[in-house]
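Q: Could you write out the predicted structure for this multi-component system? I'm mainly interested in how the pieces pack against one another.
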Amino acid sequence: MPPDQLSQTLSALADPTRRSILARLSIGDATVSELAEPYDMSLAAVSKHLKVLEGAGLISRSRESQWRPCHLEAEPLAAVSEWLEDYRRFWDRSLDSLADYLKTMKTTNPKPSRRSPKSSSRKLKK
Amino acid sequence: MKSDTGKMVIEAERADEATIIMTRMFDAPIEKVWECFTRPEHVAVWFGGVGFTNRIQEMDVRPGGKWRQVMIPPSGQEYQLDFVYVEVKKPTRLVWQTSDFGHRKAGPPANRTEVTLAAQGDKTRWRMVATFQSLAERDFAKSMGYTNTLTQGCEKFNELVKTL
């Protein structure tokens, strides 16, 4: 997923009403008026939220049915969790590398201590 | 070779931000680990992992100071990284955030990273809390059953520590 689309997904999800609409749609498809029911909100206002969700690819609307029920699209959400997973992997790799590097430091540039009695002024190398 | 414990938890309680928590034990004294995070010649070596290279442009380790660098993964594509230090308490606490933290913009989510170090004998316990803005969908993702993807607990025990 390109970063801009990731941002679009995140920004669409930043609103509690929109999240709640998505939560409702996770149970099953629903029409605009069904979605508007729990809120003290005009149909127009709910439609506006739906437009944002649709723009972010989080929902789709049937073209055929007169009532145009809204349908949840899970793919952008999966992309968000994938992004988080990538971030975790990034740090996992970095820390593996750091652990190895610390070992190198220990042998090439020890501080005076019990386990590494030799002192050295050699430059650190990987 | 895995010699440390890695763990990620995404806390579900916080409604408006996503948090990744990772912990590790390093077989090195706290001053060394601190140095590795705050001196450009060290960061350049390990940041990103094996196969990555880094050009550190600026590393002004004090609150408000900049950390700017170009990160080059094995693919060769260069990434400009821009961070600002928020909190600096040698050798126990280092907090930085992406320079766009608090502003909405295109691109990857802004984040703040808090690293806390604790000496445990000759070893150092490292803990990172990374907070992402605009990831408020977690509650929703949870209700959708994505928590298995979002919550990764990797129990990789520190074999090095065991052999010491």
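A: Regarding packing and overall arrangement: The longest strand of chain B covers residues 79-89.
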